[in-house]
Amino acid sequence: MKRRMISLLVIVMMVVTMLAGCSGKKTGDDTNTDTSGTKAPTQAAGGNEDSSVTKTATGEYSAENPYHLVFSYIEFYEQDDAARKAVQDALNAKMVPEYHIEVELLPLQYADYQSTIQLMLSGGDALDIIPIFYPYASSWISMGGIYDMSELMATEDGQKIVEALGEANAHVGTMNGVLYGFPANKESVELGGLFMRADICDELGITDEYGLKENEDEYTGKFYDWSVAGEIFAKVKAAHPEMTPLYLYNSSQMNRFKFFDELVDKFGVLDWEADHSSTKVVNMFETDSYKQAVTRLADWYDKGYIYKDAATDTQGTATMMKAGNTFSYATAIKPGFLAEAQAANACKGYVMYFNDHKEGGISTTNVSFFNTGIATNSMDPEMAFKFVSALYSDAEVMNLWQYGIQDVNYKLLEDGTAYFVDGEDGANYKYHQNTGWFMGNQFISYVWNDGTKTADYWNKLQKHNDWAEYSPAFGFMWDSTDYSTEITALNNALDTYRSALETGSVGSANVDSTLKKLNDALYAAGLQDVMDAKQKQLDEWLASK
Known about the structure:
Helix content: 25-40%
CATH architecture of the domain at 8-184 and 369-403: 3-Layer(aba) Sandwich
CATH superfamily of the domain at 8-184 and 369-403: Periplasmic binding protein-like II
Oligomer: single chain
Distance between the termini: 42 Å
Radius of gyration: 25 Å
Number of strands: 19
Largest sheet: 4 strands, mixed
CATH class of the domain at 8-184 and 369-403: Alpha Beta
Number of helices: 20
Shape: globular
Structural class: alpha+beta
Strand content: 5-15%
Strand order of the largest sheet: 12-13-11-14
């Protein structure tokens, strides 16, 4: 791509910066502090002796000759093109003089994301920063499309990423020795439970019996066995036979009832419920943990506690709660969840945590979901890495990308949180990404205050993560490249039986026979070969740690 002309604003800023020296450093001050209180880099060269020039193994860059970087990301919400261009210009007003990088924003639609990136990688298009959804990592590494960032971790920029994520999380996006990406800094532990209608809880004495309180959703270590949920459902069913006590749909809530380290694809797992320290790969669908969960669900279904069309229903929780004919649904809970759920469901609610253990589990893919990586198409991976580092360490960069221009796209409230400028909201904004959970470090950006969050919200999420225990295979990423045919066949076999089992609609009388049919189909599809290969890779990974 032809480099774009730097705007007059950038040139003026550059001249002012050169006159001031060292990127605007004040006499006697080693750092510049942005409005969020996060310290920003003082040298554009990232530690070079001459801060007016950034030197890499590939080239030399300056404010007059910046590196042109293509930043691709998924744009989950529609943005105004002109507003996005203005944000890009504002971002470059910072990036060019400070980092010697000129950023080109390349938003992608989620539906086209995989195919677009794959075509760009294979076609050699100009591309630097890419989002990597973990199931795509193995194939993109195999095609030589992802740059290995391992050798850059010892640099100052690499250490900034480690400081943001911690040593373990900073390296979790590694497969076969290739550090392909960094996870977003976000909440990662999924502690499960129920969202329940407040009016029914109040009416039946459930509120007082379990000490439920309005807007209380932070986990304190207090949890209940799922058998207690069955007792609550019985009360609801007796008092309101017209109401479904528990709404489940398809099989998307199974991980709320039992936690397994699924080792990416469920075909060969660690049975964390049975033994937190085990590294033996087992068939999830033959474990006592899985059988106990589906047996309980089948019992609830037989008793009329679960929505009768659960195996095929696609309406979703908000639709069912708004209709007023369901009492509760299973969900992951975190600080701030309740306010968001009440708004979506159009009713007041309470939450209760249900677990088999006080702590939650964290697997590789809990953390390494979407990752920030560098394409091998990059003309200078070192410069690309500097931008990646900025996404994890420079609050001004994250706020610009996420929220846009202050007082144009958002305003700061008195408590230091951010919200739309007057006249704009969630329905008519021009620019508002709000996807810090997806790439970069959302914990250095402003807390977006839609009325449900306080200024200490990021601290609450970090504390929520502290309730988790890491799987012994945390950091291991199964490479299934050589088993794609088997994985397809295994998914087909699982899809045949899974919904009926994991919504309870199979019925108690058919649990054992259906499990046998499922497991027979899985082994016929090559499950044992996949588990053996996965165990071999895991053992080699453990030995290398």
